[in-house]
Amino acid sequence: MPLNDNGQVRYNDPLGGTPSDFGPQVRTDYWHKKALVEAVKEQYFTQLASTKNMPKHYGKKIKVYHIMPLLDDRNINDQGIDAAGVVSANGNLYGSSKDIGTITGKIPSLTETGGRVNRVGFTRILIEGEIEKQGFFMDFSQEALDLDSQDDLYEHLSRELINGANEITEDMLQIDLLNAAGVVRFGGVASQDSEIIGEGPDISEISYNDLQRMSIDLDNNRTPKQTQIITGSRMVDTNTINSGRILYCGSEMIPTFTRMTDFHGNAAFVSVEHYAHANDYKKGANMIHGEIGKVGDFRIVVVPEMMHWEGAGAAVSSNGGYNATGSNYDVFPLLCVGSESFTTIGFKTSGEMVKFKIITKMPGTATADHNDPYGEIGFSSIKWWYGFMALRPERIAVAKSVARI
Length: 405
Prior knowledge:
Elements: H1 27-40, E1 50-54, E2 61-67, H2 100-106, E3 124-141, H3 142-147, H4 153-180, E4 183-186, H5 208-220, E5 227-231, E6 237-241, E7 245-249, H6 254-259, E8 269-271, H7 278-283, E9 291-295, E10 298-302, E11 324-325, E12 328-329, E13 332-337, E14 342-347, E15 357-361, E16 377-390, E17 396-401
Parallel strand pairs: 1-14, 4-17, 7-10
Antiparallel strand pairs: 2-3, 3-16, 5-6, 7-13, 8-9, 9-10, 11-12, 13-17, 14-16, 15-16
């Protein structure tokens, strides 16, 4: 319904008419809210995050101490004294070692008289995260609202404005997660991106064995197999997804998973409809958004906007049927994010989620000035704060592979 310069509904004559006696039109707020709900449905990585709320007047950086466990190779200090009273290199006893001989020799035994022996120490690392402001805006005219053949034009513009901001936030978070991974594995015999190849005897396509080794790495890093995701309204409930970890990938990797075999030559991929309850599968209940199936310890979730590195692999000479850009193979990531491995940083929020600030001024007296003396142009702007902090990068894993064409 057309609006007048004061944002009120105009009846009958679309070029004039009398403002409604009921009061100003607030339809724009309704559509903003609806668009936010729709945007949440498309989140994949944001729903995994907890959010630390940055208070006012403390700058843009947040810092957290992480005290290393005693029996950890990262606990490096100069306070060690062994059972014989001799200063040891590190005060962490046997650290992360699993060797029986090493552990036996480092057991903190005591004699009858005790003495100044078996002293240990602790160390801590400082984790930092920084927030930055993001935002953009759009213009629209009064004529567009009044005369366009699409009478709900503003509804669609508003929805796409918020969906765009949501996707930008998801993209920034995805990049941060890929860069923060503490566990990195490569398909085939590759050891770096530039060695990823789609031809010859050692094609760098991720295998069942590669996924099993990555799962073992995560187990050794004490990464929980129960990953919390937030469903429905992000401010309401949290469901725990059991039986494995979530592995995110792009749709380009579907042919790789569906062809994958286990150590016995049997199909390793189990499609989601085979293990989801029939009613759950129809309704989407107790399932992860985008889940297509399961391989080993991983539940496979396809993210439509999953990124990759174009042309970052080895040079192409005789392509074996894998994606490439220019003269080099593309590198595709498979991302696993363990519980409590990262947090996003919010500012002026509830401390629960990233929150967008939307400012809308409809054409009319609110926007009229010397640049637009007739008040014909309105605008909507959206801004938000974004920050990322990797709390336990050893619980974030990425496997890099070529993808079949």
